[in-house]
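Intended use. Records like the one below are meant for learning the mapping from a protein sequence to its folded structure. Do not use them to infer anything beyond what is encoded.
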Amino acid sequence: MKHIFILNPAAGSGYAEKVLQPQIITYLKTTDLDYEIHRSLNKEEIGSYVRQRASEGEPVRFYAMGGDGTLCDVVNGAIGMENAAVGVFPCGTGNDFVRNFTEKQNFLDAARQVNGRTVKIDAIKCGDTYSINMLNIGADCEVVARSSNYRGGSLSYLRAALEILPKGPRYRMAYSAEGEEETEEDLLLIAIANGHFCGGGFKSSPKANLNDGNLDVLLARPVKGFKLIRLLAKYRMGTHLDDESARDIITHIKTRSFKLRAIDKVNVSIDGEVNPFTEAEISVVPGAINFILPDGSEML
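Structure written out for the chain above:
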């Protein structure tokens, strides 16, 4: 089996290249594993490189050395390739995907990674792009975009949220879940999830499941003042879906597909990567990814 480590040299302000890479190489030299380290040129190159190497046909494991965006790029190259498995050494800003597993420190342990087992998890398909964790549209996405201006890890997301949300943003959207009529209304945000977390630790989708064959959709309507502050605190902790006072603000849907159309100008964050959004039919692809679970970790 081939082990290919996809290095994002910019990840973690250089941490992936300067600290993590030497640690991994030190371990690999003590083994007889067949391995390569690929230094990525840019995000567009990652997917095509992974697809090319997976197309060679031999069993291969790809390890994304970067954040959620780097992992997403690797997934988009490996999707549909049964001989390929995908793992991650998390060293980005938010590192939200690995929060879905126990013993997160195992993901930075090279020995536990290469000796880990693979598990089948779902993917989200949005147009021609796949997500392993979550799509965020509206205020959530603007928070991600603003947080890139700051340093401070997950605290940068909280700072950005406190700057954007009190302004009461609203976005006119039209949507329909599988088999339902289209609804049009003003929304604060939409989260379409496979995993639980976004924004550096906000547990926005506490009822999501990585392999249940469903999308977990959360719609939040515009809200201001103290009610917003209270809701934001619960949104971070993952208790917002149990809040009786938020029933008129939040709608939670389990569905296999979800159509979404933006009437106002809006962006989408796909695993932390921000792009303009107009409309899409978003669907779950059950068991699409062979994910490497480090030895000693389990899905939550």
